[in-house]
Design goal:
alpha/beta; 190 residues; seven-stranded parallel β-sheet; globular
Length: 190
Amino acid sequence: MIGTVMPKAQPKSICVFCGSRFGAKPSYKQAAHEMGAAIAKHGWRLVYGAGDVGLMGEVARATQDAGGEVFGVIPVHLFEREVGKRDLSTFVITENMHERKKVMFMNCDAIVVLPGGAGSLDEFFEVLTWRQLGLHDKPIYLLNTDGYWDKLVALAQHFVDEEFADESILDFMTVVSDVDSLTSDLQAKL
């Protein structure tokens, strides 16, 4: 129709949970950089915790440097600590961590967990639990750079072995060792 403006289609969005530190191995930073660049290359949007430090900052800068769109979400109490990155396509400040996770989750099509600490584990277990309860069917990936998540995968198997979780919980997460494998699998699922 003449004069009709069609709304721009929203790109598929990848939520990345990761550390606000770089970690002990340079490979973690390299993987974060590769992940950010791959998100932009595939025309996806990065959804992340809006920090400008550690792996969080690296994945965002790599996405931006490659021309990608970045949606950042940070709670007000972490704005100074994680150095809220304000030069993003979309920047949201939430009241607390619970809101942050909800906004990130609601604005993504898949979840990728890079190396990180307790905060990353909190985010991972929340989306894994929601998946286990049937609240979503979004793919969840563990980027297992240099075996970083091996002990977590073993712990999940332990849950199953000790009959505290059904074996299906293992199917709710896809463990990959490199960004190329992860993005290939994501392309097939999105």
